């Protein structure tokens, strides 16, 4: 059965080392597990049991792509989190991961702001025109300054960073944010480790600042929607949350705006809100016009659309060894469908090989699946001859997706 691609997200989390990528990812895996369980009524273990177990065990991403499920406003989303190496030595690997993901959560430390590896990764992401949202982490630390980081993203990275929130309280007293889209305060609940939040009034002493930044937000998004622009001048109070989100989504997809939010993953604040915005603002595979490659028979350019009915085309982006299932090849499927047990053509080796099994890698289990379709990411077992960068496709409709010549990170500096 093919999944509705509208509810798929292939995202990466990029950051300078120490900004909190590991902590944030662990929070996501944890919430996704809890969130998923809440949606299932027949499970034996209660949510609390599960939370305690997972907290004791400590869940970490060990895989090149980890799949989580996320319930958002009544829909169930399927998120593949692609590992993007933070270290400067892995630029080739960063390129490879940027090639296969559709959107990025870009993490900054609220104290250190834009750091050298943020600059390198930001520019690599610019080369691939990857839509992104910014998450300013460590808001609980002394010296944390959300708006300073927003300014740095504008001035040092040359992007139109737009705050969607303003922090309530600072350092130890950081407890929530004003949500500028909905014009309300939110404080993350402690009893479920920040998985949910409580609405609070906007603090009186923030009223002027909130008015000013909400207006800036509305002005920025109104540029992407004419009717919103009219309302902005005639009757700003009539602008709805949905109108703001839709215009913001378009601006984010076009990489014209980088929406910025904040939190403290270590203190369980803000990660849930950020993840909800991933569903709202970052692209699904359907937002892509397709992938372009070369037909090896005649050198002509070919495009494959994100559709299971198109001929199969996938890129092998990471080879890894898993202690339980052995040698795994991680693939991003761009078009068509691949069944476990079937044969696939490799345009480099010019050989056909049989796929014995396909897996979706979760934080705590490897989930075998019967097939994998356009827009999805998974791990395949069975190859004898496979290299990262290989294109796997339908023999009758061959395509080479990538020559593994990557853009130079120095080119295109802002
Ligand atoms: P990574 O190198 O980006 O993966 O960063 P880690 O997640 O390993 O975090 C680096 C250090 O910062 C660790 O000691 C974390 O406990 C700490 N840390 C991460 N997030 C926060 C945060 O929101 N607040 C504070 N105070 N510390 C944090």
TrEMBL record:
GO cellular component: cytoplasm
Molecular function in Gene Ontology: GTP binding; GTPase activity; translation elongation factor activity
Coiled-coil stretches: none
Annotated GTP binding sites: 15-22, 83-87, 137-140
Alphabetical UniProt keywords: Cytoplasm, Elongation factor, GTP-binding, Nucleotide-binding, Protein biosynthesis
Tr-type G domain mapped to chain residues: 6-286
A biological-process GO annotation: ribosome disassembly
Keyword set includes Isomerase: no
Domain of life: Bacteria
Location in or out of the cell: Cytoplasm
Family: Belongs to the TRAFAC class translation factor GTPase superfamily. Classic translation factor GTPase family. EF-G/EF-2 subfamily.
Cited function: Catalyzes the GTP-dependent ribosomal translocation step during translation elongation. During this step, the ribosome changes from the pre-translocational (PRE) to the post-translocational (POST) state as the newly formed A-site-bound peptidyl-tRNA and P-site-bound deacylated tRNA move to the P and E sites, respectively. Catalyzes the coordinated movement of the two tRNA molecules, the mRNA and conformational changes in the ribosome.
Protein name (Swiss-Prot/TrEMBL): Elongation factor G
Protein source organism: Pedobacter yulinensis
Organism ancestry: Bacteria, Pseudomonadati, Bacteroidota, Sphingobacteriia, Sphingobacteriales
